Structure formats: structure tokens, C-alpha cells
Prior knowledge:
The protein is 66% helix and 2% strand. By secondary structure, it is mostly helical.
Amino acid sequence: EEMIAHPKWRSLFYKLAEDYPDCLMLNFTIKLISDAGYQGEITSVSTASQQVEVFSRVLRTSLANLLEGGEEGLEKNLPEINKMVCHGEHTYLYSQALLQYLKEEEGGSAVRRISQELQKAAKDMGRDVTEMTLALGKAASYPRACQALACMLSRNALNPADITVLFKMYSGNNPPPVEVIRSPLFFELFMQALFKPGSKLNPEHKPKYIYLLAYAASVHETWKKNKRSAIAKDELKSTSQAIERATNLCCKERSEVVAELGTLYSCIRVPVVGMGVLRWIDWTVSEPSYFKLLTDHTPIHLALLDEISTCHPLLHPHVLKFLIRLLETTYPDLDVLVQLELKKTLLDRMVHLLSRGYVVPIVQYIKGCIDRGDTDISLIRHFVTEVIDIIAPPYSSEFVQLFLPIIENDAITGNLRNADESDPVSDFIGHCRSNFVVMT
């Protein structure tokens, strides 16, 4: 008991437990540590997965941290809980059964998100948990739908026969619950089938694919005491039409897309189409020869990102990750000056994303670029100049603490300041120094 009261000893026990998972003494020690209230430290210890009492405490603490931490906490803590839950079939089944119960409580959407993230993590680890996950949900009451879904999710590919089964069920008078097909992994398969360049989809079956995706994305159900009391399909037709128009345009040549840009912009306002077009842009721009063949200052695909950022705040993190990946990619076939211009264009997209309210993650990324010293200083200066032009008080304390050190860096903004301090950079610095206590 005296040993486990000290962090250093506990840390040693955690490491030994990882190296010798079959040691009974270490398993017992882990249980003592959990009993003493240190279960929050055990998230990375696979030994906890062998004892239901310890595992339950650790899982409860981890879930509480995820639910209280918001999106930031999810990104930070999810890898550890994934490792613990996906340790074995018994831990996965136990965790998903608990989450299935919690989904039905008030605020269950956050729990559903965690459940879906765990399913995705298990798939990424090469574990096929499809049938187990479906058996715990509402799909179990619909054997034909469950079988069709399990077949496609296990093979990681859609097929016309199973799609036809689901289409007949969901276009009937008493369809299964929409939750059955409202799965991120299932959505991803639809994205690949409908929006990925070069996807070979039989034209006869395409309307069924579109209908099911639209149904999963737009239909709302009301449930009372485990009975469905209403199905709202008000947006089903318009969503189907938007998906059809967008997918048809994404298959066309670039010149034809430009000619019908207004149509694509109107389709992007539908959330599921916004995600599909984002994936289409990603696949298209990731082609090695894409930028090599371009002559436009702002390629049409990158310009479309601005509209996605404007219409869909929930896609902001995905847009930023995509832009970061492009920004950090090297383009050996392009001239150095052309590469700089391209990266300035990408930074302009980041500035637009910032103007839509996704501020702190972007400034954190730019600050990280400066700290690592791996980004051309002229690019940082370009970003700062563009941001200064569009911002105005009041500023949040978090923004000031991140952005002020960048602005005060002489290597970045020295050439942007006047001797009499009558410039936007000096105005920003003066405002921050007068209104905030700046942490150093």
C-alpha cells in the first residue's frame, strides 16, 4: 500500500504489467491500485482488461473524461481507450453493450459517437466486429437488413444484391429504423461508390445507392417507449436530388464542372453532399500530377473548399486536416516559386476557414510551424498579413495568447510595421497589451 501511494512505483507497476501480462502478482497489484482510486492512470494497461472489476472502473473513468472533454478531449483520450476496449473480444463486447444502454439515455448522441469511434478503431486494427456491433443495436430485430449490412461491412465494399435488399426494405411502408444504416463506416462505403473518381457503379443500381444514402442522412424518427411514433421524410427527395446532381457533376471534366458551378454550389449546402464533395476534392487533388498540370492561381477544387467551410461548421476539422496535408506535402516536379504560390493559396483557404469561426486550431497549427522551424517565413508572414486584414476586436484571451507572440516576432512582422506605429500590426499589439494580461 505504501508503494502504490507513490507515482514512480505505480508507473513501474504499469510498465511491468504491460511486459508480463500473465503475472498474478502484478494483476493483483493493478487491482490494488484501482481500489485506491488511481484508475484514471490505468487506461494504457492491457492488464486491466483481464479483470472485470478493474476494467469497469477504468472504463467508467475514461468515458467520463471523454464526455466531459468535448472534441478536444476526444482527440486526446480516444487512442488510449481504443487500445483498452479493443484489447480482446470480451472487452469490446462488454464496452459496446454498456454504450448501447447509455445511448438510450438523455444526451445519448455523444455516447453514440464514442461507440462509432470504437467500432472504427477495431476495424483499423484489423478486427471484424461487424456482426457483434449489429447484434447489439436495433439491426438485430431485422435479420435480412442485418445480414445485408454485415456482408458489406465485413467485406468493406457495397454490392448491388445487398443494396437492393436494403432499398426494398427502406422504400416500403414499414422500414427498419434509420439508425440501422446510419453508420459512419457504411457512409464511407457510399462516399467511395458515389464520389470517388473512377468508381465503376452500374447506372441501373445507382438510384438505389443514392436513395439509401439520402435516407440515412436526412430522415428523422421519433421514438417513444421503444416504439416509433413518426417518420419525417420531408428532406428525403431534395437530398436525393442534390446527391444525384453532385455525383453526376463530379464525374465530368473540369471545364464542364466550371460551367455548372452554380449547381454544384447549391448542392453543397446539403450536409451529406458537402462531405461527399470534400472527399471527391481530396481524391482528385491527391493525384500526383494534379498541381503539375494546373495553370489557375486558385484551382476550382480548392475554391470549392471555401463554400464547404461556409456552409458546414461540422466539416471544419476535416477541411483543416486536408489543407495541412497539402501544405506539408512536397512537390518535387514544381518550381520553388510555383510551390510557394501554391502554398500561399492553401493558406488563403485556411484564412477563410478561420473567418468562418474555426480560429484556435488554425492559429495553433501556424504557431507549431514556427516552433518547429520547418515552414518558409514568407508563408507565415503571408498568413499573418491576411489575418490582420480581417480581424477586429473584441478578441478572446485564448486567441491573443496564441496570436500575439506570432505578431510580435520581428522576423515575421518587422517589415510590416512603421516607425510611428500607425499600421495594423502595431494597432493589434497595442490593443492586446492594453486589454489583456499576456502570459510569457
